[in-house]
């Protein structure tokens, strides 16, 4: 227990208190430290981090949110940034690194302003004005509405998001796979989603006219959870494959005696039963005691215990199920019945997988066989239908492939890779791309990547700042400069001359924003960085695009996080464990 | 040296030391929250002893978490809490006022004035101040929504959510007005009638006022079952949908294999019976109260309910039952036999809604027939810290409306009332003689701390500002206050910066009482 401290003001508390500039500087330093960790992983030529935890588990990743989640950040202000990355991950899915970098740069610059005697609240209101203006400009000038979104746009966006990841080299291949996967799970939005989607369209829509049209269309949703990503180690990344209308589950036949494949056809589909119950010798519930007086009864009871389950199995088999998948156990005794009937049975399947598979094949997960009369029957409607089920050998393990699902909304990507770490990283990268494609399909607007948006906003905000007469001007200018950190970091990571590239970038954007810009000059707004060549180029033509909504959201999140930290002028740390 | 009794006060040194130490400790508390006063106030970041992090601007919240040790300092902490209960807003103000009054006491004491004399004069001054405030206050009509929103905007201006006040203020006003029966006769509001549901994800802009009810989680669908029901008939049940359990010491004894079948079949029959009764009552939405003793539901019962097309919401907290029943107009049912049609609530639509961003689901009840006087606010925010702070801010805003229901007067904000009271008290003191005159003058000057601090926090020149305010008030401009947006002195009524009278009067009265109490202490005995 620490002694109560007085910090010169006579305030006795059990803990420490810091206030004023010290706190602000401390917070900003902590935030910068966090940002510096992820800084070098930004962009197509960013590098990966290897994280080793206390039990020696290794994680290699390039994904900002994943890196930060693994760090045990103690400083509360730094934790705000970690949360920020997590939020970006859950809301947008991509751009976790850049959001952290922008937020920390905003903080650094704001802190300099405070040091030069500008009140934090003035800076905060300046940042807010800048954000509003930036979003307005972005929506008005930078966003490209893709009325009929075609695969090219999606492929471009997917490739852009992958470019910084481990699968960037095979971008073409994986982008196609990701696009196919997301499109295959598209379904009409249910009532529950309608309310949610409406909000999204509102915030994403650029011009009100187009938005109205967009709303009238049937709303589609793309639940990414329906895309099943399986990781099997072995072979090369390029041998990963996508099973359209198919589903693979990580389970194998329960007994060797079962067939390895059952084949059917569209007309005569294979029926699958999905169970969420035990197929084991029945045990009575707690509080039920078996007491027998007559030794002969023991046999009867044992037999009955087996028969209860046997009856259930018979009912399932009678309904024509050729494949039985359960989330719980199946004991050897019961397996016998399946083997005899030539049925594939797999136990201990993942429940979520089964739910998805049930949806995909038009079946239902059965929790209990009770019917409305209080008896036990198996409802044939609960059976899913597919054309074939095969057990295939992948890498070291076996997997059950379910082909030709008759329902909709589920598909599987099987990832292959040289080692576990690579597979994990591929999974994360693919997840980011899937999110990007989903956002694009849902909002159908895009902006150019490669620092184009940041440079354009920076030029515009600088111009805008000069139209203001108040002290907020300074903060807006800093906001404008802070945005340049993205192209700068991109260039630095690519070992290019960042000063020169950023200057060029700004020059072309300034030209495009002139009041009397010609059409040709206006097209310069798409100019972004080419990090391989170390030059600038039209990134729309080069196919470096991102969904507009993720840019807008990340700007908002970054600013909000910076403001949260900036508003703090006092830090009180209470001593631990002194509760009475 | 002969002392003239009554004129000056001499006492044992001990009493003096205790008093000084108390005053210093209490003043330190006031100083700690001073920087968070007003729209340009800053936030505090606190790391609690359990490792939790809190960022807040709310005086009462900061102080309650700060764990101060000095007993006199604790009194100030409690002061802010009582202001929170009484008015809900002005929790920082009240502490800053108390600090300023204590400062005034210190100098009065050093002049040798008896503490009791100071205390009695302060009480008089506070009474007078209340009268003055009442005389400058303007009556407000609860039907005048725009004025209420203006008052709420003033309160929110110092919070993190100030940027969203366009959205939050109407929500706060409408939620409070929605729960009072008759705006003309209501004298108090029970804020517990307003339910705040926090959902991480999205931004504060997505916060909405729900006319109906929202649960924190989605419906239970582990056995399939519907997630959308139109023309819902809602039953709130408190009994369990699972097989009855025997007591700990008792056992069911099976001695015959046929009995095993019977047990299994009876369990099914038992649950089916209950479910059928529920269905028969006409209910198609079922809310199940959480149960500790037994499972409130099991897979089997969910399966039956799903087959009957009944939407199930499980794990309803016991404490929420009353609120839910009032909102939906249903009655809690403790046994299946007492479930009947008249105990059901009705709603046009009940269904899961996916929260944009986070993807979480919540159950929403809309179009409730015969709704009770309750409201639900669905709060959104990008992280838990923001969400918690937004929740506190909306609570403050609702308290402002509540204060207006209690006392239907508005006064100007921005330090205007404090300057006005200070000036009038000084005039009043001129008409008095003796200790009263002296102490009341000191009281009046202490009140100027509020505009002084506001100006200081806004980065203005406090002395210029306060003197300018005095001048304007002497000239009869009772609404003159500090315009922190433009950093000038301007008329608060024009800017619509308004606050409830109750906040100011209760702040002055509570602060005075606490100061008097601290003054009266002359000994500190530590009991082991």
TrEMBL record, chain A:
Where does the protein end up?
Cytoplasm
Task: Indicate the transmembrane segments per the record.
Answer: none
Q: Which domain of life is it from?
A: Eukaryota
- A cellular-component GO term for this protein: cytoplasm
- PROSITE patterns with a match to the protein in the record: TCP1_1, TCP1_2, TCP1_3
Q: Which NCBIfam families match?
A: thermosome_beta
Tell me the protein's name. Answer: T-complex protein 1 subunit alpha
From TrEMBL, chain B:
What Gene Ontology molecular function terms does this protein carry?
A: ATP binding; ATP hydrolysis activity; ATP-dependent protein folding chaperone; unfolded protein binding
Where is it predominantly found? cytoplasm
Give the highest taxon in the source lineage. Eukaryota
Cross-referenced InterPro entries: Chap_CCT_delta (IPR012717), Chaperone_TCP-1 (IPR017998), Chaperonin_TCP-1_CS (IPR002194), Cpn60/GroEL/TCP-1 (IPR002423), GroEL-like_apical_dom_sf (IPR027409), GROEL-like_equatorial_sf (IPR027413), TCP-1-like_intermed_sf (IPR027410), TCP-1_chaperonin (IPR053374)
GO cellular component assignments:
cytoplasm
**What Pfam families does the annotation carry?**
Cpn60_TCP1 (PF00118)
Compartments where located: Cytoplasm
SUPFAM superfamilies, sorted: GroEL apical domain-like (SSF52029), GroEL equatorial domain-like (SSF48592), GroEL-intermediate domain like (SSF54849)
Which Gene3D superfamilies has this protein been placed in? GroEL, GroEL-like equatorial domain, TCP-1-like chaperonin intermediate domain
Identify the keywords attached in UniProt to this record, alphabetized: ATP-binding, Chaperone, Cytoplasm, Nucleotide-binding
Which family is it part of?
Belongs to the TCP-1 chaperonin family.
Q: What is this protein called?
A: T-complex protein 1 subunit delta
């Amino acid at each position: 227990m620490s002694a109560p401290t007085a910090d010169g003001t006579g305030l006795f508390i059990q803990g420490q208190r810091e206030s004023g500039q010290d706190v602000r500087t401390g917070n900003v330093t902590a935030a910068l430290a966090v940002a510096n960790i992820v800084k070098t992983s930004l962009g197509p030529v960013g590098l990966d981090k290897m994280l080793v935890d206390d039990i020696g588990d290794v994680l290699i990743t390039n994904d900002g949110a994943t890196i930060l989640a693994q760090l045990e950040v103690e400083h509360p202000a730094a934790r705000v940034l970690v949360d920020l990355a997590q939020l970006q991950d859950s809301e947008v899915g991509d751009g976790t690194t850049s959001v952290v970098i922008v937020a920390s740069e905003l903080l650094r610059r704001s802190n300099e302003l405070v040091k030069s005697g500008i009140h934090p609240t003035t800076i905060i209101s300046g940042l807010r004005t800048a954000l509003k203006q930036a979003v307005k400009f972005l929506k008005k000038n930078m966003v490209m509405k893709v009325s009929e979104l075609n695969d090219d746009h999606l492929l471009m966006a997917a490739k852009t998001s992958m470019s910084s990841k481990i699968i960037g080299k095979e971008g073409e291949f994986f982008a196609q796979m990701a696009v196919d996967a997301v499109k295959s799970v598209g379904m009409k939005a249910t009532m529950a989603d309608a309310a949610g989607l409406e909000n999204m369209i509102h915030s994403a829509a650029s011009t009100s006219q187009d938005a109205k049209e967009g709303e009238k269309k049937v709303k589609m949703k793309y639940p990414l959870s329906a895309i099943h990503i399986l990781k099997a180690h072995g072979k090369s990344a390029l041998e990963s494959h996508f099973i359209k209308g198919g589903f693979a589950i990580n389970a194998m036949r329960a007994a060797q005696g079962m067939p390895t494949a059952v084949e059917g056809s569209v007309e005569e589909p294979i029926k699958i039963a999905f169970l969420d119950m035990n197929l084991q010798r029945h045990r009575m519930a707690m509080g039920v005691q078996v007491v027998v007086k007559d030794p002969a009864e023991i046999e009867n009871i044992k037999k009955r215990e087996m028969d209860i389950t046997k009856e259930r199995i018979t009912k399932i088999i009678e309904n024509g199920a050729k494949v039985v998948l359960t989330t719980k156990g199946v004991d050897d005794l019961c397996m016998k019945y399946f083997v005899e009937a030539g049925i594939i049975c797999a136990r201990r399947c993942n429940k979520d997988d089964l739910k998805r598979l049930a949806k995909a094949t038009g079946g239902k997960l059965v929790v209990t066989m009770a019917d409305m009369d209080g008896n036990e029957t198996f409802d044939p409607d609960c059976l899913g239908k597919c054309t074939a089920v095969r057990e295939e050998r992948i890498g070291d393990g076996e997997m059950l492939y379910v082909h030709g699902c008759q329902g909709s909304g589920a598909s599987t990507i099987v990832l292959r890779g040289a080692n576990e770490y690579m597979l994990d990283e591929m999974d994360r990268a693919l997840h980011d791309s899937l999110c990007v494609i989903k956002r694009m399909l849902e909002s159908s607007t895009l902006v150019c990547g490669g620092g184009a948006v940041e440079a354009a906003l920076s030029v515009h905000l600088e111009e805008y700042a000069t139209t203001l007469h108040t002290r907020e001007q300074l903060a807006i200018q800093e906001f404008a400069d802070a945005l340049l950190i993205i192209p700068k970091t991109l260039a630095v990571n690519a070992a290019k001359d960042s000063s020169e590239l950023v200057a060029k970038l700004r020059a072309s954007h300034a030209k495009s924003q002139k009041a009397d810009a010609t059409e040709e000059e206006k097209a310069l707004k798409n100019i972004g960085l080419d990090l391989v060549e170390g030059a600038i180029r039209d990134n729309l033509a080069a196919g470096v695009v991102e969904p507009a909504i993720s840019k807008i959201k990340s700007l908002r999140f970054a600013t909000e996080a910076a403001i949260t930290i900036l508003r703090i002028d006092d830090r009180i740390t209470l001593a631990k464990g002194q509760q009475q | 040296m002969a002392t003239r009794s009554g004129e000056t006060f001499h006492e044992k040194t001990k009493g003096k030391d205790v008093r000084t130490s108390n005053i210093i400790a209490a003043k330190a508390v006031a100083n700690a929250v001073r920087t968070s006063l007003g729209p340009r106030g800053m936030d505090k970041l606190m790391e609690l002893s359990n490792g939790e992090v809190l960022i807040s601007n709310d005086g009462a919240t900061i102080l309650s978490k700060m764990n101060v040790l000095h007993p006199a300092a604790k009194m100030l902490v409690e002061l802010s809490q009582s202001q929170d209960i009484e008015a809900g807003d002005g929790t920082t103000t009240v502490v800053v006022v108390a600090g300023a009054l204590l400062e005034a006491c210190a100098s009065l004491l050093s002049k040798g004035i008896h503490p009791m004399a100071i205390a009695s004069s302060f009480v008089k001054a506070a009474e007078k101040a209340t009268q003055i405030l009442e005389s400058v206050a303007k009556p407000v009509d609860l039907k005048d929504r725009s004025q209420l929103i203006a008052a709420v905007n003033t309160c929110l201006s110092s919070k993190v959510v100030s940027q969203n006040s366009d959205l939050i203020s109407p929500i706060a006003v409408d939620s409070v007005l929605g729960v009072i029966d008759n705006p003309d006769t209501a004298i108090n509001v029970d804020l517990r009638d307003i339910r705040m549901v926090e959902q991480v994800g999205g931004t504060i802009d997505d916060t909405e006022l729900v006319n109906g009810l929202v649960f924190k989680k989605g419906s239970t669908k582990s056995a399939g079952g519907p997630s959308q029901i139109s023309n819902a008939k809602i039953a709130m049940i408190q009994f369990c949908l699972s097989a009855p359990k025997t007591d700990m010491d008792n056992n069911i004894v099976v001695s015959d294999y046929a009995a095993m079948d019977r047990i299994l079949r009876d369990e099914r029959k038992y649950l089916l019976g209950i479910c059928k009764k529920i269905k028969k009552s006409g209910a198609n939405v079922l809310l199940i109260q959480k149960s500790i003793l037994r499972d409130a539901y099991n897979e089997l019962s969910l399966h039956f309910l799903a087959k009957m097309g009944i939407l199930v919401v499980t794990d309803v907290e016991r404490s929420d039952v009353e609120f839910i029943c009032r909102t939906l107009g249903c009655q809690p049912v403790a046994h299946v036999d007492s479930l009947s049609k008249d105990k059901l609530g009705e709603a046009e639509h009940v269904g899961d809604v996916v929260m944009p961003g986070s993807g979480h689901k919540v159950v929403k009840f809309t179009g409730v027939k015969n709704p009770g006087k309750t409201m639900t606010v669905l709060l959104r925010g990008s992280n838990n810290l923001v969400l918690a702070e937004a929740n506190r801010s909306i609570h403050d805003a609702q308290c402002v409306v509540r204060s207006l229901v209690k006392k239907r007067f508005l006064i100007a904000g921005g330090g205007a009332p404090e300057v006005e009271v200070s000036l009038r008290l000084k005039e009043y003191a001129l008409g008095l003689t003796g200790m009263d005159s002296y102490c009341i003058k000191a009281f009046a000057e202490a009140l100027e701390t509020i505009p002084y601090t506001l100006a200081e926090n806004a980065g203005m020149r406090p002395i210029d500002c306060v003197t300018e305010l005095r001048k304007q008030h002497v000239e009869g401009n009772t609404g003159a206050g500090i315009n922190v947006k433009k950093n000038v002195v301007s008329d608060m009524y024009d800017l619509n910066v308004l606050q409830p009278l109750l906040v100011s009067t209760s702040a002055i009265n509570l602060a005075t009482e606490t100061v008097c109490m601290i003054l009266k202490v002359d000994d500190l005995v530590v009991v082991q």
